[in-house]
Amino acid sequence: MKALVATEYQALDRLALADRPMPSAGPGELVLKVEAAALNPLDLALVTGAARELYPVRHPLVVGMDVAGTVEEVGAGVVGYAPGDPVLAFVGQAGAVAEYTVAAPGPRLAPRPPGLDAVRAAALPESGMTAVCLLRAVGLRAGESVLVVGATGGIGLYAVQLAHSLGARVIATATAQDAAYVRELGAADTVDYRERDVVQETLTLVPAGVDVVVDLVNRGDGLAESARAARPGGRLVSPLYGPPDLGREVSPVYIGSFTSEPGDLESLARRAADGTLRVEIGARYPFAEAVTAVTDFATKHIRGKVVVTVP
């Protein structure tokens, strides 16, 4: 089979479509025929080695972790799935930008409901489940206010919608051209991070400070700066690591990787299928242009998810 492969830690433009052995389903595994695969920032860091200390890679690496397709083969001991079933999954370093991949039953694999096409389904697993995990970890509640920094990225677009659905007042960072769209997703207010100081604008909107800051962009001392938008005793949550003390009794919650719970992915898929959760596809590439998809994802401002379709 063909797959997008990194043979070592390397520059993104040195990736190539290459032959890899056809996977087989071991006990407790499924082989999936891939229809679409979505890219995430972690994919870039795995290729270049920027994340090697936290996530070491065994080469050759097949790029991508989010996939939608159909069950091709069912391994021993697997129940509830049969060949031909449409599914979506987070497959980790098994690799998603390929003609076939391997997945395991559990909370990171879900049936794909009618009405949810493969492209939108592939855009859900990592970003959607991370957004769920972040809001759950910080305990966001109805009536609270939340600033989402990085609201137009893959995770951010879901975080805005899920926070709004919980009954929170959402303030989201967005450029002028994206502001109307982010408001449609549920943001009550937007802050143009290119033109304004995000913290100062947020404190103008909520003088006492927001209850929660969800920062999907900054790391290290940058998170301490974002925390100034939180009220004393508020919370900050981030998938990137930062200082243990943010001052003013603002509690930091750092999530290095999402911890999915049973039903999370199924719920996201159902909501996407019935239209109550919008999935934004910022760019779509055919399998033959997978290397371009990766380099564009790394270098261009793309609202939403980048998806590679596989014939």
Kindly describe this structure.
With 311 residues, the chain is an alpha/beta fold. The protein has two domains: 2-124 and 279-309, Alpha-Beta Complex (Quinone Oxidoreductase, Chain A, domain 1); 127-254, Alpha-Beta Complex (Quinone Oxidoreductase, Chain A, domain 1). Helices cover 27% and strands 27% of the residues. The strands form three sheets. Strands 3, 5, 6, 7, 8, 15 and 16 form a seven-stranded mixed beta sheet that branches. Strands 11-10-9-12-13-14 form a six-stranded parallel beta sheet, with helices on both faces. The protein has a three-stranded antiparallel beta sheet with strand order 2-1-4, with no helix packed on it.
Instruction: Quote the distance from N terminus to C terminus.
Output: 12 Å
Bulk shape:
globular
Average pLDDT confidence is: 96
Major sheet characteristics = 7 strands, mixed
Number of domains: 2
Rg, alpha carbons: 19 Å
* Helix count from the secondary structure assignment: 9
User: What structural class do helix, strand and pairing data support?
Assistant: alpha/beta
Helix content: 25-40%
Fill in the CATH topology of the largest domain: Quinone Oxidoreductase, Chain A, domain 1
Series of secondary-structure elements, N-terminal to C-terminal: EEEHEEEEEHHEHEHEHEHEEHEHE
CATH superfamily of the largest domain: Medium-chain alcohol dehydrogenases, catalytic domain
CATH architecture designation of the largest domain: Alpha-Beta Complex
Poorly predicted runs = none
- The CATH class assignment of the largest domain is Alpha Beta
Number of strands: 16
Tell me what portion of residues adopts beta-strand conformation: 25-35%
Keywords: Oxidoreductase
GO molecular function: oxidoreductase activity
Protein name: NADP-dependent oxidoreductase
EC number: 1.-.-.-
